[in-house]
């Protein structure tokens, strides 16, 4: 017979059907499955909700706040002062602040021949890095007669609702850029017409945004006033649901549109649930490995005399340890592969759910799931080998 | 491996007065490859301890045991396993068989480590020692004399430069002792190996041996 572990296995594994062994296998299987599924679901939720969330970019939430209007402060100046803005900037939960600067002069807009429509408008401007869609054409210099405008998607939607009743044509996001808008800007210091050109739609900011350079120039040109009195401020934060942030805003009597961060709240709750599931999975894996190590210790204790004799006869302790540890390699591999298959099935079932947009998700499991599975496989083998080596040392 | 050297070896548990007359304890003894050394001593004088010191099973002694120029106290368990696979073999006084394995399996477990003989050699040697019909029997069902012969064949399955024998014939009659001794001589000659034989008294059928008293 050749020198293989199989030939000496009966001397080491004297008991084939140990309850603790099977319980260990079962626990390990459940734990690995829970962990892999929770990672995949975490990624799924992250991808699904991130795709549909215009407020979020680069891992930050951009939310608008304004001062709460009450009977007591109604009619007073409820704009943000310089010290209000400085206090906001100093909050550890806030990574950036940008006031929405509005026009102080009068703006009247007509849409030319295509849309027989004219109205007074308000324009606003904000730092470009707070806008979700900034095309390269969104710039303005004095002397330029065309003013680029970023139009709110919500406004376009509202327009399309009332347009048919008013006998106006409905517009698609693509055709809106071809609408010629004449902006008639006037104030005590003069009047001037500009051509407005819608260059992008914003899902984040409900306003008509013009470049900051145009706003500063025209406020001075028509009103000789460049002071900043913003009634709306956008803040950049890592987590719009941070209780510290919400508590601070409430203390300051700032109004935050909670409906706007509903997605984040749902996502946060769902991710907390799957995270808890993942932690539970890790806990079960640790328990299973502990149980399995007890079985291993018991097994080695039972075959102590045989192992000692094998070592006395010249069997290498390293070879014995590796051979004993390798016995469970197919078992661990089956558990990990089985858990991966079940995770894939659950992932495919998740994709069948009606609210899931499959275009955002891959049919293949996320790389982090594969990496975790490989890591767990390596970890179990490492623990096994070291445990067997340690036990063998005790009997030498 | 060319030689084993004992330098001032004394077991920790023996009082100084008891080793004054010894030719081994606290002396320097060299055993060269190909040599036959016969250690003679009464029961309880430390024969088994000495064999175990040489084989590296125990370290409760002062002085040093050298395999060539290596003090075996410095050898790792892993290094010992290499020596035990193809440099040094042993027949234990307490035999140390796997009782729930068959006779053949007991011998094969040693042979497969570093096969010096083909598997057929097991049957041939078993025939020579009169246990060929016991090959498929569990070791625990064999008599002590048969078990001694199993242990002898097992020790001869590997390559070795030194063979340690600790009262290997205690339960064999004269005829079987001679057969076993002939087989051991034959196998040692094939390898030009040294034999370190520990027993209660000098045996008349040993040849070319150096006798030392413990």
Structural features:
heterodimer, A: alpha+beta, six-stranded mixed β-sheet, five-stranded antiparallel β-sheet, 11 helices, B: 214 residues, alpha/beta, Rossmann fold, five-stranded parallel β-sheet, 6 helices
Question: How would you sum up this structure, described in words?
Answer:
Chain A is an alpha+beta fold and 396 residues long. Helices cover 49% and strands 16% of the residues of chain A. Chain A folds into two domains: 5-53 and 265-395, no CATH class; 60-257, no CATH class. Chain A contains eleven helices and 13 strands. The radius of gyration of chain A is 33 Å and the shape is elongated. The mean pLDDT of chain A is 84. Chain B is an alpha/beta fold and 214 residues long. Chain B has a single domain, classed as Rossmann fold. Helices cover 31% and strands 22% of the residues of chain B. Chain B has a five-stranded parallel beta sheet with strand order 6-7-8-3-9. In chain B, β4 and β5 form a beta hairpin. The mean pLDDT of chain B is 88. The chains are: A alpha+beta (396), B alpha/beta (214). Chain A binds chain B through residues 1-3, 7-8, 10-11, 306, 309-318, 396, and chain B through 57, 77-78, 81-85, 96, 98, 101, 108-110, 112-114, 119, 158.
